[in-house]
Amino acid sequence: MAGCCRWPRWAGILAPTARCRAPSSSSKQKSPPISPPGSVLLDAGKHHGLLVTTGGWSGTDRPSASNRLPGLFVAHEHYALLYRLARRPAPARTRVELEVSNKFVPGPLVVHNTIGEILGKEKPDEFVVIGAHLDSWDLGQGTLDNGTGTAVVLETARLLARCGTAPKRTLRFVLFTGEEQGLHGSRAYVARHKAELPRTSACIVHDTGTGKVIGLGWFGRPALKPILEAELAMLKEVGVTQPHARGFGGSDHVPFDRAGVPGAHCLQEIAGYRFAHHTQADTLEMVREADLVQGAQVLAVSAMRIANLPKLLPREKR
Ligand SMILES: [Zn+2]
User: Domain limits of the chain?
Assistant: First the structure.
């Protein structure tokens, strides 16, 4: 989830001589002169020595870019040690030696969204999109971000395809790609399916790990509230207390919302997400199977009820 991927950008800037600079905003002591930086160290911001991978490509951190300053994540405990050392008054100096081995793949790379659909029986050219992102980072297995969302979307598709009742509108299940580098898959979908957007009722994504779904966040849109509270009232039975909540950005529902399509993300119990996502601890052990079943129940009911409404969901934001 991109929104959950924002980390403090301040870092000690290491000069080619590997000198570490203390943050000027938090220290009144005069900093020693600094030569041009050789790298930026970033606090991984996780517990227990976990590392983290995150961030979009701004175009300045690719090998072909003129600014080739690499950013390196450091375990929080190591970062804190460097910070304390760097705060010592002059003439003390902190020297750090870095050894980085890396591999660059020439780009651009072609990647794909994965899409399946259940055709609507009355309005096949109107849509409800249910999504999650298939891409991840490679420190762990990417279970919580976003293997769990992917599994929930696939299970939702499987059970609706088998339930024996076709929806009124077409249900489209999308596993987006390139979410982590900047919502590339969903932005491309919105651009490529522009003509369909006025006929797309909603997009709902599952992208906060394994935790039980307790609500749907719709970026405001008060006009949706009475409709969803009535249509999704039965989800209370499985723990959804807020079928219309405020919600926030940071995932593949955002490009839809910006293009005028009501976009929501599942509000979920946190269930270890903050601890493990984007780290080497994001492994299969983090899964809570019962909660994924609940997630598929919530998405299946939501998708079907919204697809079967007499009209498309209202578009107004206020
Ligand atoms: Zn994610």
Answer: 10-100, 114-307
> With 80 as the cut, is the pLDDT of residue 20 above it?
no
Query: Residue 92 contacts by C-beta under 8 Å, 6 or more apart in sequence?
Result: 85
Is 50 exceeded by the pLDDT of residue 284?
Answer: yes
Closest CA to 272 of 264, 261, 259, 283: 283
* pLDDT tier for residue 101 given thresholds of 50, 70 and 90: confident
As given in the structure block, the two tokens for residue 204 are 């709902």
The Cβ of residue 62 has, within 10 Å, a number of other Cβ atoms equal to 13
CA–centroid distance, residue 49 to ligand 1 (Å): 22
CB atoms within 5 A of ion ligand 1 belong to 1, 145-146, 207
HSE-CB of 267 using CA atoms within 13 angstroms: 16
Distance from Cα 2 to the centre of ligand 1, integer Å: 6
Confidence of residue 39 (pLDDT cuts 50, 70, 90): confident
- As a whole number of Å, the end-to-end CA separation of the chain is 26
2, burial (CB in 10 Å: exposed 0-12, middle 13-18, buried 19+): buried
- Statement: residue 8 has pLDDT above 90: no
The whole-number average pLDDT for the span 225-244 is 97
Residues 6+ apart with CB under 8 A from 109: none
Cα(22) to centroid of ligand 1, in Å?
32
Closest listed residue to residue 165, CA positions, set 316, 303, 7? 303
Instruction: Give the helix/strand (H/E) hosting 151.
Output: helix 148-162
Q: Is 40 helix (H, G, I), strand (E, B) or coil?
A: strand
**Is domain 114-307 classified as CATH 3.40.630.10?**
yes
Could you give the CA distance from residue 137 to residue 125 in angstroms, rounded to a whole number?
Answer: 35
Buried b (16+ CB within 10 A) or exposed e, 106-136: eeeeeeebeeebbebeebeebbbbbbbbbbb
